[in-house]
Amino acid sequence: MTKRAIILISGRGSNLLAIIKAVKEGYLKDLEIIKVISDNPEAPGIEKAKAEGYDATYVSPGAKKARFDEEGLKRYVGIIRESGANYIFLAGFMRILDEKIINSVDAVLNIHPSLLPSFKGLNAQKQAIEYGVKVSGCTVHFVDAGVDTGPIIIQRTVPVYADDTEESLAERILAEEHKAYPYAIKKLIEDKLEIHGRIVKIKE
User: Fold this and answer.
1) What is the CATH number of the domain that holds 204?
2) 112, 141, 178, 196: which is the annotated catalytic residue?
3) How much is the pLDDT for 125?
4) Which of 82, 141, 142, 170 yields a CA-CA distance of 20 to 30 A from 7?
């Protein structure tokens, strides 16, 4: 049974393109991307999504910096509910979701460039380097009302080298993000994820 998803972006759309590729190559054959929405009118991901044949647009979240204001929230909830989406996938979306958005679909997933619960929020790669960790990576998790606090679905690791910069570590992590996110989405749409409190079990 085909599941319908909206993808929210703020920037270049790297993970968006990884999901689109997985759909077009048949790995996510039961997923329909019905809309791509950006909270940033200048996000390169908007044009990239359009070039791939998808409905992509900027929708104002309102004047608040990291959250939605009342009117912005109404806009987003209205679009999501009208679309009939089953899921929302955050792909570099730099805004905290209100519970009204989270509750408007069956599930919301996010990918974060660290091994949560370490290094939540912005500049995770920079945080990892400054802390001196030897291993970093990425996390795909369910989204709740907190910041990077939802139950973890999958994590993939990369080494952190002594001469790493924020950019070099980010590039290495991004390669793993492009594998982890489609995998987690596939398990979700195939109903192979079971949540028990904070524990997510994957039925292989």
Assistant:
1) 3.40.50.170
2) 112
3) 98
4) 170
